[in-house]
Amino acid sequence: MSLLSLKNVTSGYGKKEVIKNISFEIKQNEIVTLIGSNGAGKSTVLKTIYGLNRIWNDGEIYFNGADISDVKPNDLLKKGIVYIGQKENTFDAMSIIENLQTAGYIYDKQLLKNKIDNIFELFPQLKAMQKQKPLELSGGEKQLLALAMGLIHQPKLILFDEPSAGLDVKHMKEVFGMIERLKSNNATSFLIVEHRVKEIMKMTDRFVGLKLGKTTYDDFAINENSLRSIFL
After folding, report:
1. How confident is the model at residue 227 (pLDDT cuts 50, 70, 90)?
2. Which secondary structure element, helix H or strand E, spans residue 214, and what is its range?
3. Model pTM score
4. What would the DSSP string read from start to end of 92-104?
5. CB-CB contact of 116 with 101 (8 Å)
6. CA 195 to chain centre
């Protein structure tokens, strides 16, 4: 059974339709990457899954076999889905430890402490800088903090919008490496929007291509012809 399944999903902003009849699936312990040109609707897919913008003409979204088409973000979080946006994905006025505490506000004090201790074991660099604020971090460190905030909830699926945005090669590899480790060690699945296709190709299990708001390609094997059909 698929972990996540989209069936003929249509959504947009206001009255503007951005994606139309999108269909694809994600299996347990899989990294799937959404690719396509700017404006293709990649980020809209993530937001639609997470209930951040939904205009339903038709379509269904299933998670672990249950229909989540009308489920709100807070309830999706409890079901095991985390969304990490491309921008403003940390609280810049708070320290690292305060960001983690805020992310885990739904847990009691002792459970949250245990969860944060586990996060610091996974991200020792964040533990060493826990009193610093996101504005004092490098781009890669800030993305790791955003990922750590999501992991507080031990999700089954993480929706990650452009994890490499604004990062140099060194920090991009660090973030990508952590995503790959999480998939291997914790059976966490990922649906990622990413423009660095060649770089993420090494760890992704499957690509889903979008063009003009529609699914154009759903396969593991990416080659020059398939990329041309998506981006041109």
Report:
1. low
2. strand 214-219
3. 0.89
4. TTS-HHHHHHHHT
5. yes
6. 14
Measured distance CA(116)–CA(105) in Å, rounded:
12
- CATH number for the domain harbouring residue 25: 3.40.50.300
- Range of 183's domain? 4-231
Coil/strand/helix, residue 1: coil
What are the Cα distances from residue 84, in Å, to 171, 187, 193, 229? 17, 18, 11, 28
Q: Could you give the 3-state DSSP secondary structure of residue 217?
A: strand
Q: Which residues contact 72 (CB under 8 A, 6 or more apart)?
A: 51
Residue 53: pLDDT band with limits 50, 70, 90: confident
Q: Decide: helix, strand or coil at residue 13.
A: strand
Q: What is the pLDDT of residues 68-83, one digit of tens each?
A: 998 999 999 999 999 9
Question: Residue type for 223, please?
Answer: N
> Looking up tokens 């770089």, which residue turns up?
199
Number of domains in the chain: 1
Give the list of residues 6+ apart from residue 14 with CB closer than 8 angstroms, or none. Answer: none
Task: Please classify residue 112 by burial: count the beta carbons closer than 10 Å to its beta carbon, then call 0-12 exposed, 13-18 middle and 19+ buried.
Answer: middle
Q: Which of 143-152, 164-173, 208-217 has the lowest mean pLDDT?
A: 208-217
